[in-house]
Amino acid sequence: MASGKDRAARQRLLERLRAGEDAAFEELVRDEGGRLLSVIRRYLRDEEEARDALQETFLSAFRAIDRFEGGSRLSTWLHRIAVNAALMRLRSRRRRPEGSIEELLPDYHQDGHHARPVGPWRPEALATVERKETRRFVRRSIDALPENYRNVMLLRDIEGFDTSETAAMLGISTNAVKIRLHRARQALRTLLAREMGGEAP
Amino acid sequence: MTCREFAEFIADYLAGELSDAQIAVFERHMALCSDCVNYLTTYRQTVEIEQQLFARAEQEVPPTIPEDLITAIIDARRRQAE
Ligand SMILES: [Zn+2]
Predict the structure, then answer these.
(1) From residue A94, how far is each of A88, A89, A173 by CA, in Å?
(2) Helix or strand or coil: residue A108?
(3) Stated pTM of the model
(4) Distance, CA A114 to ligand 1 centroid (Å)?
(5) What interface predicted TM-score (ipTM) does this complex get?
(6) Which residue among B4, B49, B62 sits closest to A129, beta carbon to beta carbon?
(7) How far apart are CA B76 and CA B73, in angstroms?
(8) Range(s) of the domain holding residue B16
């Protein structure tokens, strides 16, 4: 991985890229392609779409290579371009009607207290996150969240973008980012609770 | 503070974005309400599980890019340059 190269090697690769060297471009695709593809697959579950978005990522990066500032890492810069390419594809796609998030939020009594007792999750259930079936269940649960909530959660919790970066990438307010992040985590918590035990369905 | 209000403070609490006064109110509710203690713990565990899922998936299957996709990308760049 280019991210595994030392500073001097990264600098040399960048110079060759700026010089338009074909071999440098191929090296970049080989070094970074796999990692970026798995980032893109978090957003695009269709493999053809993911491949197209990866291609767009490299073509955009190559067109903009002169504008890349050496201050940040090439791999960090590419990561952002890849996420943007995936989000762009989601935007251009015709929106499927999405389930509401309301039904996955906690219920309260009129006086504002939890409508049902909330228990801790069973330690044995938490330990099963090591297992493949449990991870598939977690992934399905994330996929089941409405897209505009899921994307905020991925950008904040997984990609590590901050609130204002996320807001800019999605074209929404920072307040909307905060609300959607919280709702997405609450909804995911409700879905996971069904497997982790501790409360009535 | 009610449980409903408590839940709305959780994300800011975990992000360290509450004032001292808000933290005091938040923690006073926790001292009285085991439902909210459990809710906060499982909310935090949810985020941990979410983060572990992606970290682990990549540890187990080191990310690779298919050869034919590398070729397709290189060809696309060549076409663009022409
Ligand atoms: Zn409470």
Answers:
(1) 12, 10, 23
(2) strand
(3) 0.90
(4) 7
(5) 0.92
(6) B49
(7) 5
(8) 3-81
Question: How many domains does the structure of chain B reveal?
Answer: 1
What residues are neighbours of ligand 1 (ion), with CB under 5 Å? B 3, 33, 36
Which residues of B fall below an 8 Å CB-CB distance to A?
2-5, 7-8, 10-12, 33-36, 38-39, 41-43, 45-47, 49-54, 56-58, 62-65, 69-70, 72-74, 76-77, 80
The encoded tokens of residue A40 equal 């893109």
B32-66 tens-digit pLDDT? 999 999 999 999 999 999 999 988 777 777 788 99
Interface probe, candidates B35, B40, B41, chain A, greatest A C-beta count within 10 A: B35
Report the alpha-carbon distance of residue A14 to residue A31 in Å, rounded. 13
Coil, strand, or helix at residue A79?
helix
Across the range A50-57, mean pLDDT stands at 97
pLDDT band, residue A201 (cuts 50/70/90): very low
CA distances from A82 to A69, B3, B43, B65 (A): 17, 40, 29, 14
Pair A24, A87: CB distance under 8 Å: no
Contacts of B8 in chain A (CB under 8 A): 182
pLDDT in tens, A127-145: 777 788 888 999 999 999 9
List of domains in chain A: 4-92 (1.10.1740.10), 102-195 (1.10.10.10)
How far apart are the C-alpha atoms of A94 and A121, rounded to whole Å?
A: 38
Which pair of structure tokens corresponds to residue A21? 């060297």
